[in-house]
């Protein structure tokens, strides 16, 4: 019944799509993009209830003044702008690490077919653990530390994973170690990158 599980995310998206028109626009969007001051204050009241939001409104006005001369660039202009190369490289590194992370190693672990659903469940649980753990420690350590530590931990886990996959034909118990290392890799990825 995996198709039912996959369709669940579509159902959630449909529910969100149906209720989206009833939610107000983002106050920063209304003020900075649409230049609608009254709409911005109204959205603040609708989102946060009655109150005095002059401090938040003043902060948005300062941000608007700072970004007033800033030109909105299209994708090609961003790619030509040398000042954003470090940020682009960081984003590309993160995206490539997700695509090339080696999670297909589950298939090469030569596990029994009856165990694979449990491995899939373990992957989901590992992602959940990483989200909860990361959200609780990110303020304490900061993003830079978590990124660097996450990449180092991922590199170590991948070395161990490759070793366990190479030796899994000689030692059958290493197949299960490979699965555990995959779970740890997912947790390291979720905490870091």
UniProtKB/TrEMBL annotation:
Pfam families: Sugar_tr. It is a multi-pass membrane protein. One of its GO terms (molecular function) is D-glucose transmembrane transporter activity. It comes from Horornis vulcanius. It is found in: Membrane. GO terms for cellular component: plasma membrane. Residues 1-193 form the Major facilitator superfamily (MFS) profile domain. Keywords: Membrane, Signal, Transmembrane, Transmembrane helix. The chain crosses the membrane at residues 84-106, 118-138, 144-161, 173-192. It comes from the Eukaryota. This is GTR9 protein. The keyword Lipid biosynthesis does not apply.
